[in-house]
Amino acid sequence: MNGAASRPIPTGAHVQTNETARVVLVGERRSPEAVLSRHLGPAFDDYRERWRLADEFIRRPDWPLHLDVDTNYTCNLRCVMCPLGVGGFPVAYDRKHLDFDLYKRVLDEGAANGLASVRLGLTGEPLLRKDIAEFVRAARDHGLLDVMLITNGHLLTPDVSLALIEAGLTRLMVSIDAVRPETYRRIRRGGELETVTRNVHAFLDLRRRLGSDLPLLRLSFVKMSFNEDEQSDFSGYWSDKADYISFQEYTNILETESTRYFTGNRVRAPRFRCPDPWQRMSLFVNGDLFPCCSDFGRLAPMGNAGETSVGRVWRSEAALALARLHQEGRWRENDLCRRCAANSTAQGGSDD
Fold first, then answer.
1. Is 248 helix (H, G, I), strand (E, B) or coil?
2. Torsion 266-267-271-276 (CA) sign
């Protein structure tokens, strides 16, 4: 991978940019939506329509369509853009692993109320859990359609890949962020690019031998000042291997004064509104529920799944008020939303 020739985004590829300025490259070979629709049928199409209606602030469902689940608050790396990696995050947790029975109780409730997808992994590295395939299997056994897992890839051995495939994983998301080994080591401290690259290729070989489309492979790249010149090489190397590639701007979760990680080309989002409170909730290791996938949301949990139902939290006045703020474009009235936007891709959601 080191020294890959610089190539532009492939002709015919579809590039999407949403209001938070996340950029997703979808390879022309394989549209993720089309592949999953073919495998999962009308139920998946119905779910994506419900997602669209929520994304456009037209209809908020009675229960989250999606859950982000942190299976563990532990990691084998210390990445420079992660609160677990750099330390100093203002919330401390005694519990490091999500109770599997609590997870299953949440799935019981969700399956009865329209939950369609789950992503395993928020801050911690889910492959550190020896039972991670059982988390996947439980979601599929409950009838969830889209079951995702995000990983740094270091523990993605062929045995683990096979277990995830057999459990029914639909999307595997591997975060890489570099094409040069020295850049990778600078970002993902404690990791080696060669290991991750080898594991990803082994996963693709296994999936090919099994004759399977799933799980779809997404590779992710967080753009920072010292890796942005590798973005084109990253696309050039991986675009004909991964099913899709995502690029995302650095988020300054610790709100440091230093801007050394920010690129000089941050995208403004003058009409920014976040659809997360209309679509999803996040479940943390101690059972806390927060209203989005951002680390900032973790500073204001809306309830705890060990003490109350997810549906009750989702329909609480606090959750409904936050949803209205974003629907009406008044999100700046919420301190955490304002701080999130100011320190992430929305660049403060400025109006100019």
1. strand
2. negative
- Which tens digits make up the pLDDT trace of 110-132? 999 999 999 999 889 999 999 99
Q: Where are the alpha helices (DSSP H) in the chain?
A: 32-40, 42-55, 83-86, 100-111, 132-141, 158-167, 181-187, 193-209, 231-238, 276-279, 310-314, 317-327, 335-342
The sign of the dihedral angle between the CA atoms of 34, 35, 39, 43 is negative
| CA pair distance 321, 328, nearest whole angstrom | 11
Q: Whole-number mean pLDDT of the chain?
A: 86
Q: Taking the complete model, does pTM exceed 0.85, yes or no?
A: yes
Convert the pLDDT of each residue in 237-284 to its tens digit.
998 999 989 888 777 776 765 566 666 555 556 678 899 999 999 999
Q: Is the peptide bond before 64 cis (omega within 30 degrees of 0)?
A: no
pLDDT tens for 42-83 read 999 999 999 999 999 999 999 999 999 999 999 999 988 887
Q: Are 262 and 224 in contact (CB under 8 A)?
A: yes
Tokens encoding 279 = 């679509």
243 vs 332: CA distance, rounded Å? 36
DSSP secondary structure string for all residues of 7-29: -PSPTT-EEEE-TT--EEEE-TT
> Furthest-apart CA pair in the chain: how many Å?
54
* CA–CA dist 139, 121 (Å, integer): 14
- Per residue in 294-328, is it b (16+ CB within 10 Å) or e — as a string? bbbbbbebbbebeeebbbebbebeebeebbebbbe
List Cβ<8 Å contacts ≥24 apart for 235-238: 235/7, 235/8, 235/9, 235/10, 235/25, 236/4, 236/5, 236/6, 236/7, 236/8, 237/1, 237/4, 237/179, 238/176
